[in-house]
Each structure stands twice: as C-alpha cells, then as structure tokens.
Amino acid sequence: MAPWPVGPAARRDDPRLNPECSGMSPPAPSSFASEALNPDGFLVLRPVGDVPECPEDFTCEYANPSAQVLLGDSLVGEPFLASRPTWRALRATWGATRVTGLRSEHLFRWDTGSGVHTLRVRAARARDGALYVWLSDLSWEVRASVGAMPEQDLLVAALEHLPDAFVALDARFQVRRVNRAAEQLLGRPRDQLEGQVLWDLVVDEPDVPLRQPLQRALVTGQPTEFETSPGTSQQTLHVTAVPVASGLLLYLKNTSRQHRGEEALRRASALFQAVMQGCPDALYTKNLEGRYTRINAAGAKLMGRGVEEVLGHTDEELWPDEAHASMAHDREVLAFRRTLTYEEAQSGQPGRVWLSTKGVLRDEQDQVFGLFGISRDISERKRMEEALRQNEARLQQALAAASVTLFDLRMPEGLLRWEHDAARLLGQEALAPEEPLAALLSRVHPEDRLSVAERLHHGTRLPGEVTLDFRVLDARGGVRRLTLWGRARAEDGRVQRIIGLLVDMTRRSPESPPGMVAA
C-alpha cells in the first residue's frame, strides 16, 4: 500500500481522500503510522451532529505526536471544538470541506495563553466522511521543538497509540516489541510478552491456523491477511503480517464483537424470514417512492400475484383504478411519522376489504427510509357484519310492526334494559336505554302494580317461564294493556336475569296470540 499523503504531498485526486476517485476504502488505523514522521500536526476528526455543512463538533479519532505537542495530550476520543472555543471559527469551513470535497487552507492565529501561534490549517475530506487536518505551526518555537524530535521516537509513539494490537517478531517468532493494545489483547504486561515465542502465548497446538500463514509469510516475504481463533480462545482475530528484514510485523484486530454482531444479525434475519413466510397476513415493506421492497408469499397470494410480480412495483402500477386510497394512507404515515390503522376497500366482484396497519422504517441515524405494512383480508368478516346488520334491521322492523319490544332484566341489580321502540310501545316520549325496574313499576296501573311486583319477585326465585298481563298508564294518562313473556335464567343456582318480550295487547282481542291484531 502506498503511504498515506503527508503534508503538502497530499493530493486532492488521491482516491483515499476523494470519494469520486477509485473505490479504495479508507486506510486501516495502522496506515496513520506514516503521519507520525510528519513534523506538522495531523488529526482525524469525525463530525458530530445532523447538519453536514455545519457540524456541532468534531470527535478526534487520531492525533500524531506533533499534534499532541502542539495541542496537548487529551485529544483522542474528546470533542475537539468544545474544549477549544477559539477553534470554532473553523467549524463552517470544515463543514464546507466535508460537503463539497474541496480541500481548504487557512491561516489561523491561536492564543494558547503562553503565546500566540500562527497556524496554517489544511483540511481534506476522507472517503468515509472523516476530516483529515494538517496543522503547520509557523511559529519557530514549536517547529524547532518538533523538528528536534528523533524520527525513531516519533515512530515508537505512533505505534504505541495505535488502536490495533502491534507485535514485532524476530525470525524465530519471538516477541521483540508490543504496544499497549497488544498488552490488552494478550492479557499480559509487556515484560511478560517480550522474549516469548508467539505460540507459547496464544496457542497450545502446533498445527493451528495462526502458525502456518506466518511461517509462509516469513519464507516468501509476501504480506498476508487472515482470520483465526487461536487455541481454545473465544476471540476471533484479524491478522495482518508484514515481513521485514528482522522478522514479522503483526497487526492484530479483535473482530469477535463484529462476528457476534453478524451472527446475531443472521439469526434475526432468519427469524424475520420465518415470521414473514409463516404469517397468513400480508407483510410488506415499501421505499419512499412507494415501491414494494419486500412481501411474503401469503401477501402476494392475497393480491392474486406472485412475489416477483409485486416487488419493485407501486400500488398504482399493480391496480391503477384502486390505488388512490392506499397511496393516500402511505403519504399520511410518512408525513406524521407514526403507526396508523386503516380499512382499505378494494372494488371488484367480490370486493375485498383490508385492515391495514402501517408505520415508518428508520435507519441507525433515525432517518425514515420507508414504511412497513401488515394487511389482513377482513372481507368475510365485513360480509358477516353487514348480514348481521341487515338481519337486525329486519328484526327491529318486524318487532315494531308487531308492537313487540325486547327487554333484559338483570337481577339482583334490578336494572331493566330496553331494545328499540320501547318508548312507543309504553306510550312514552322517550326512554333511557337502561333504567331501574322501579321506573317500569311506576308506570303500571295502580290496580295491577302490586301483583306485577309480586309475580316478578316470584320469577326471580326459580328459573323458568314468566308470564304477566298488566296495564300501564301512558304519558297522556291513557291505559295500555301489555303482556310480558320471559324466561328466568340462573347462574350458580341463582336467577340472575329475565330475558323476553313485552307485547302491546291494547288493539288485540284477549284471545289473539302475539302478533295478531284484532280486526
């Protein structure tokens, strides 16, 4: 790999800086080792915030030794602008560099408290969105102190602060140098690592995936990269081995967390696929243009199409005459950014009705990139509901024509619930849907009131038929003759309710059965 561009040698057409160039990925952290030799300060900054052209701050991911001398030791992992207010003047300039990809160069005066430094600040956008910043101190005091630092010391400092583990091996695979990350990875201090054979530190068996690639690299002189899980370790290591004259330079990265994340993602994806394919309802996702990006087989079948016939198409393309309602609901979900439930009717013979729940899909940055939907065919249920409604309407018409109403007397609360048309039958202007039994008794003719109360009380003792003939006074003082037929129903051995009919017998002869009006 060519060295990372240093100072003025960095070119805008370098593919590692310019995303419009070749598809090279940004260099690994170990590639920044070459910047350790740069007498200019070098920073890798990561923007913080949702506004690309003017980030809230930048987090420092790497600082070479010169930058640490110039700016202080506490750089990596800290917000850069928050602890250096005077540097906020560069925030907009750096934001523009990230947005346009054009490199920027400015002179910047910085008062450290102990003196004023004049800096030439150059910034370039990396392919992964980071910002690379070079700091040239034009004040002779700092430049003299940095220039006096031996190159070997700079290289050692750079290796020591690498985020990946670094191990230098001699030709006998004995450890000659490690950095702090290697101490943490191998679980030992460097005085217990240096001088030891690598195999004694990480593996027990001689024939393991780690030994053979390293031996091959040492013999052939060719760099190599591979992954391995040494011995009984649960860790997965990504190993980069670079042959040098004295042996091998190893860069070890623990990728166990990445592999666990990939495995968890694979299992979650498999579970999601199992749920999608096993669900009898239509499950689907759409992008922001309304095109189906995923749908299960059951959903495609309910639409009368195959899965491949649905994917990539919009509702308007699939059924242009009926898509307006579904598309309007999609727009509403995306506009309000919340989950909503609709009934969506589809015309045709026979027409279909869908109960659809839709919500937005968000990425890791909480940005909406589409919507999901769960749709159930409720056509049969809607037909049954409509049939029930029509039957109920016909029943009410029949009851009204026969001067009959339904009642439900719940005991021991003594609450009486009337069905439709009870007010007309009792000769009242209006009745509450539910009223106390005492309200009915108050309308009973005084001569019949006691017998009605006694008969109802007797009917609540034992389950069975209840029949009453009595008179009531209507709202104008007229007398109406009524017959009550009911059945007392028991629960747990006690009568809890009486359900039945109340028939207006005023216009019928005493011998007429219910529904027969005397001529």
TrEMBL record:
PANTHER family referenced in this protein's UniProt entry, alphabetically: PAC DOMAIN-CONTAINING PROTEIN (PTHR43304:SF1), PHYTOCHROME-LIKE PROTEIN CPH1 (PTHR43304)
CDD domains linked to this entry: PAS
EC number: 2.7.13.3
Catalytic activity of the protein: ATP + protein L-histidine = ADP + protein N-phospho-L-histidine
Official protein name in the record: histidine kinase
Coiled-coil blocks: none
Keyword annotations: Kinase, Phosphoprotein, Transferase
Cross-referenced SUPFAM superfamilies: PYP-like sensor domain (PAS domain)
Enzyme class: transferase
A GO molecular-function annotation: protein histidine kinase activity
Record-annotated PAS domain positions: 151-221, 268-322
All residue ranges annotated as the PAC domain in the record: 329-390
Pfam family, any one: PAS_4
Transmembrane stretches, start-end: none
Region named Disordered: 1-32
Phylogenetic placement of the source organism: Bacteria, Pseudomonadati, Myxococcota, Myxococcia, Myxococcales
